[in-house]
Amino acid sequence: MMDKTMNRQTEQTQLMEIALQEVWNKTPFSYFRSGTKLTLLQTDTMLMVSDHLQQYIGDYFNLGLNRADVKPRALFSKYMLEHGIPPFRIYLADMGITPSHYKSVREAIDEMNMLVDHPELDDSGKPTGHIIYSPVFTKFRVPMTGDFYRKRDDKGEVVVDSARHYGYIEVEINKDVAQYAFDMSQGYAIHPKLIARYATKQKTPDIYFKLKEIMGKEKRSRVKLTMPEIKKALGFEPFKDEQTGEWVVPYAKFAHFKTKVLDAVKDDLDRMARENHTDITFDYQPVYLNGRQRGDPDYIEFTIVSTDLGIGYSLLTKKDTPATDEAKERKREAVQQELFADEMKPQVQDFVAGDGSDLWAQLLDGYDGSARPLLVRAEYLGLQDGAFLVCVSEDDDRQWRTIDDGSLQQMGRQILSLPSFMPSIRRTVRR
């Protein structure tokens, strides 16, 4: 009996260590639904925006915004919704994109059309009873420098004459619809940060998020979806052909939809499961009623299966799970989360003034990225919840929100031995 217990504890520890290697983000379902007709590159870009917003999500819980009895329940504070959300940048190098591909990335981003539906308001601010669509972003582009570069072939002929691009995406969220696009009352998915980058099929992220959403609502692993529900989630709704004027039904034959979409995405998620890149995969069964066996099924029954990564994450966030000493310490600092779309409770924050100053000095000596001037100007206060706590000016706080500090946070996590989904630096603003 003891040997079985030890083996079980060893297996659980191994699964938790797998989960600790992954960066976990939270993305509101309302935001993800605004981008159902995107390529994998565009979806990855959309999720990089979500990655930047993780600090706002932390503030959402820490400041008690999740307890507001209102719908929509905006991710952002009332002040930001009124005065604007600070713009920010996503650096293409952090997405693994080289300068030779900047032009194609710019073209892909220019084609992104992310819209959110919301009530129409009249001039007095009262609902008209109509639903309209508005863009999620007021600015979303890869800016160009204005300079040009040229390449010539062996004969001296110009083969490339193209504009140079800055190496980042400029992002500005539309404050007028932010409460609808980032409505936390509709739930959110906890997912691997690079879920779209790991995928090879365009619709893998869409099915992944849809299964997460419905499982979070129904609290069970076996769920039913009709064909119209699935096609709507995947952006496969009927459309009018501009040239012929005729209506087109994507994947009108279920056999094609089954092979090209469901089977292809299942194979993709199964591969990602073997590589520990997804926390769920699925099995499915078309269900026909009244003796039918052809055409669209009455519904499809999905059985959602937790992978080793998913089981490890679930174990990691349970207080009473045995683990190694290192995993226990890292787990103690972790925010207690649920695997699917449940909201967290505000956490009690422990603050130790001045503690960790030697580790802070180590971070200052080792980091030489774009956030270094902000880091140097910050006043170190101590450790809070195992992370560095600094005090910054209001101007620096606004600048901090516009930069990508991923490499800084990662270095801080390594110094403090924090799990990959926790911030290593927390800020408070000097008033």
Give descriptors for this structure.
single chain, 431 residues, alpha+beta, GMP Synthetase, Chain A, domain 3, four-stranded mixed sheet, three-stranded antiparallel sheet, 17 helices, 18 strands, 38% helix
Question: How is this structure best described in words?
Answer:
With 431 residues, the protein is of the alpha+beta class. Among the domains are: 24-193, no CATH class; 351-429, GMP Synthetase, Chain A, domain 3. The protein contains 17 helices and 18 strands. The strands form 7 sheets. The protein has a 4-stranded mixed β-sheet with strand order 15-16-17-18. A 3-stranded antiparallel β-sheet has the order 2-8-5. The protein has a 3-stranded antiparallel β-sheet with strand order 10-14-13. β16 (379-384) and β17 (387-392) form a beta hairpin. Mean pLDDT is 82; it is low at 319-350.
